[in-house]
Every structure is written in structure tokens, then in C-alpha cells.
Write a structure and sequence with these properties.
- The protein has 458 residues and is mostly helical.
- The protein has one domain: Na+/H+ antiporter like fold (Up-down Bundle).
- The chain is 82% helix and 0% strand.
- It has 21 helices and no strands.
- Helix 12 crosses helix 13.
- The longest helix is centred in the middle third of the chain and has 33 residues.
- It is globular, with a radius of gyration of 23 Å.
Length: 458
């Protein structure tokens, strides 16, 4: 079975690869023409981005921030905001306009793999076992910010809505952008602060998982509205995605569980697992994109249905994580190349940016506080949960880039929301440190140990 899986999987991958090469033959010829000069320039640009991202990540880690903050800043500074302003000829020489399609393509692959990893982190079993508290927090922390985002969008529509963007898509997209929580960045912060295994940390992670599931579903609807030429087309897209999700969860998920259980005990199982996971991610991404929703939704679903209790699957995930660490700085750079904070329209954009930040922070804190207090959490834990849900990071940048590509938002609003993303993500680690939730966890553990000692027989 493992051998058959390898043959079928890599045969399918070869077919998809050949189709991609055929479709982009002209661009590939251009990349390798002239002695491959453009190709070597592409390698130089990738090297500069990856090294700069590594340096920036290491620097911000020294001040208690997650590496992703430094990588995002790096992407912005390499673009026209700083590098292009100080040395425009050098910047355009290294990052030639002809290279942008290739960098964007590589970054898109990295983002798709990243979304597969995000889906893998969202455990359906943990969601079911978490109880009503996580449902209350997860739903409220997405519902209230989305509603506030829609109200803000109504105020901004006349000035910032692109003419080609449908009203419904613009309003819902701003709502989704307000409601997103960066599940992977939050997980890294909690792990660094020793909160990953605590009750509050677990509740925060699972609530963020619930919120992310709802946010991606809303984004799928937004993309359908943005791309749909008619109401019938939007309904068709939503119906296809709903059917696809049901088949993936109810049919493919148990089949994958049985397949990996067999492959895990066979020689060559790891190779077969890598091929199957790659094929699953590529085919899911292709289907959701063809159905009228972005490919990232398909990659997310592919990760969500993978079995988490199989060693061979975790090996593939570790392999994919190493690749993402190299590819994500390219994504941040392609985002930064689209942002030029030097051409702001003045005081109006600054006031709008301040409004967006305030609404984003307050709506997350208030929404989480309502649910947490209803579940009888203390004030420190309540505020801690709110701080966790306010972390946006990379997930928000993916959402914003999707909206910019679709034409739902323009450059000015894109830059404003990127600044909001940086501010809210950078707030998370210092505020969690100020709340001293890690010391509370240690105290709870100590009390538990003392209770165990008192109850133990002499």
C-alpha cells in the first residue's frame, strides 16, 4: 500500500507540476534566458531577504518580542518606506520589478504551507472537549469585533472603498480584518512565556482556534462576494465550499486516519506521507481557488483534517515547518514592497489609523471580557484572555494581502491595517508579562504540589 501510495502521489504531483510548467513556460524561459542573469538576481534577492529577516527576528527576540515582529518590520523597511527612500537605485537594483512575480509566487507557496500548519494546530478533538466556555469566548471574540469593523467600514467607505469593490464585500472584509487572531503567533508567545500547558493558555489557544475557523469561513464568503458576478454565483460558491468542507471532515478525515495508521508501520512510510500531505494541500488549494475562494482556505482545511496522533504526520509537519521558516520572510517582503508610508495622505490617514487601532483593541478586549466574566473568570485572567485574542500577526497579513489582491481594499487602507497589525501584535508579549500570568501559573502549580504532598501517605 505504501508503494502504491508513493507511485500514485508522485504521479499526480508530476502531472500537476507539468501542467504548471506548461502554463508558465514563457515566464520560466524569461527567468533562465540571457545566461540565467535574472535567475541569479532572484537568488540574490532571496538571500538578502532571508538574512535580513533572520537578523531582524533575532534582534526583536532580545527585547521579548516574537520573531515574526522583526520579520514584518524587515519587510516594510526593505520596501519603498525606508530602503527605497534612502537608496532607490540600490533598492531597485536588488529587488528588480521583473523579480516581483517570482518572489510573490515563492511567497504564495510558503503561505499555503503555513496555512496547512495552522489548520493542523486547530484540533477538532480539543474543540469538542473544551466545553461551553471556549465556545462563548471564541464566538464573542470574533462576532463583536466583526460588527465593530462593519460600523467602521461604513464610516470609511466613501473615502477608502475602491470603486470596483462591492459594498457587501468591503463591509464584511473590514469586519473580518478586525476580528482575526493570529493563532500560530499566539502559540509561540504562550510557549515562550511558559503558559502553553496552563488552563488559561489552553483556553486562549482553543478560543483562538474557534475564532480562526469562523474568520476563515467569513473570509470565504467575502471572497465569494468579491468575485461573484451575480447572487447565483455567490450562492454556488458558498454551496461548493460547504459541500467540500463536509466531504473533507466526514469522509476524507477518517480515511486519512486509517491510511496513516497503515503507512506508519511500513518501510518508506515517511516518503509516502510527505507525498500524500503535499498532494492533499495542493489539491485542496486548487479546488477552493477554482470554486471561487482563495487557495489558502483549501490549504487550511487540508491541515485541519490531518490526524494528530500519528508520528509520521508529525514528522511531515516538522519538515514543512522548516521550509516555512525560510519562505515566510519572502512573504513579509512582498507585503512591505506594497507599502509606502511616506506617501500618506496626511492627518486624515493618521486619524483613521488611530481609529482602527483603538477599535481593534477595545472590541477584542470588550468581547473577550463579556464572555470570560460570564464564565466567572477573575479579572486578571479575563484581561489576559483579551490580550491573547488581540494578537493578530501573520494571519492578519494574509487576510489583508488577500483583500488587496482582490481589490476589496486599496493601498492606503492596506497600509493602515498593517500598522494596526504591528501594534496589536507587539502589545501581546509585554502585556502578558505585565499581568504576570506565568507567575500565577507557577503559584498554582506550587499549591497543587503542596496539596499532593499533604494528601500523600506517610
Amino acid at each position: 500500500m505504501a508503494a502504491a501510495a508513493i507511485v500514485v502521489t508522485f504521479g499526480a504531483l508530476a502531472t500537476l507540476g507539468w501542467g504548471f510548467i506548461t502554463a508558465h513556460e514563457g515566464r520560466i524561459r524569461k527567468l533562465t534566458s540571457g545566461g540565467g542573469v535574472l535567475f541569479w538576481r532572484l537568488l540574490l534577492a532571496i538571500a538578502v531577504i532571508v538574512i535580513a529577516g533572520w537578523i531582524a527576528g533575532r534582534l526583536v527576540e532580545r527585547i521579548g518580542q516574537p520573531r515574526v515582529i522583526g520579520e514584518i518590520f524587515m519587510g516594510i523597511l526593505l520596501g519603498p518606506t525606508l530602503f527605497g527612500e534612502l537608496a532607490p537605485k540600490v533598492q531597485r537594483g536588488i529587488f528588480m520589478p521583473e523579480l516581483m512575480p517570482y518572489l510573490s509566487g515563492i511567497a504564495s507557496v510558503g503561505v499555503a504551507i503555513f496555512m496547512l500548519l495552522v489548520g493542523f494546530e486547530v484540533s477538532f478533538g480539543r474543540l469538542r472537549a473544551a466545553g461551553p466556555a471556549v465556545g462563548m469566548v471564541g464566538v464573542s471574540m470574533i462576532a463583536i469585533p466583526v460588527a465593530c469593523g462593519v460600523l467602521v467600514a461604513l464610516l470609511l467607505a466613501d473615502r477608502y472603498r475602491p470603486q470596483a469593490a462591492p459594498w457587501s464585500a468591503f463591509l464584511l472584509f473590514i469586519g473580518v480584518a478586525m476580528g482575526v487572531t493570529a493563532f500560530p503567533v499566539l502559540a509561540r508567545i504562550l510557549r515562550e512565556r511558559g503558559l502553553m500547558e496552563s488552563r488559561l493558555g489552553t483556553l486562549g489557544l482553543i478560543s483562538a482556534g474557534v475564532g480562526d475557523l469562523l474568520a476563515w469561513c467569513l473570509l470565504a464568503v467575502t471572497i465569494a462576494l468579491a468575485r461573484g458576478t451575480s447572487q447565483a454565483g455567490v450562492v454556488r460558491t458558498i454551496a461548493l465550499i460547504a459541500a467540500f468542507t463536509c466531504v473533507a471532515v466526514l469522509v476524507l478525515r477518517p480515511l486519512l486516519h486509517r491510511f496513516f495508521a497503515i503507512v506508519e508501520t511500513r518501510r518508506g512510510g515517511r516518503l509516502a506521507a510527505i507525498g500524500v500531505v503535499l498532494l492533499l494541500g495542493i489539491s485542496f488549494a486548487w479546488f477552493t481557488d477554482a470554486a471561487g475562494v482563495h487557495a489558502i482556505f483549501g490549504a487550511f482545511m487540508a491541515g485541519a483534517i490531518l490526524p494528530r496522533d500519528k508520528v509520521v504526520v508529525r514528522h511531515v509537519i516538522r519538515f514543512a515547518t522548516a521550509g516555512v521558516l525560510l519562505a515566510l520572510p519572502l512573504f513579509f517582503a512582498t507585503v512591505g514592497f506594497r507599502i509606502d508610508l511616506n506617501v500618506s495622505s496626511g492627518i486624515t490617514d493618521l486619524l483613521v489609523c488611530l481609529l482602527v487601532i483603538v477599535v481593534a483593541v477595545v472590541s477584542k478586549l470588550a468581547a473577550t471580557a463579556l464572555a470570560a466574566r460570564a464564565a466567572r473568570f477573575g479579572w486578571r485572567d479575563t484581561f489576559g484572555l483579551g490580550v491573547m485574542m488581540n494578537c493578530r500577526g501573520l494571519t492578519e497579513l494574509i487576510v489583508l494581502s488577500t483583500g488587496l489582491t482582490l481589490g476589496v481594499i486599496g493601498q492606503n487602507l492596506f497600509a493602515i491595517f498593517v500598522v494596526m497589525t504591528l501594534v496589536t501584535t507587539a502589545m501581546t508579549a509585554p502585556l502578558l508579562g505585565a499581568l504576570r500570568l506565568d507567575s500565577a501559573v507557577s503559584e498554582d502549580s506550587g499549591h497543587s504540589d503542596n496539596r499532593d504532598a499533604r494528601q500523600a501517605p506517610a
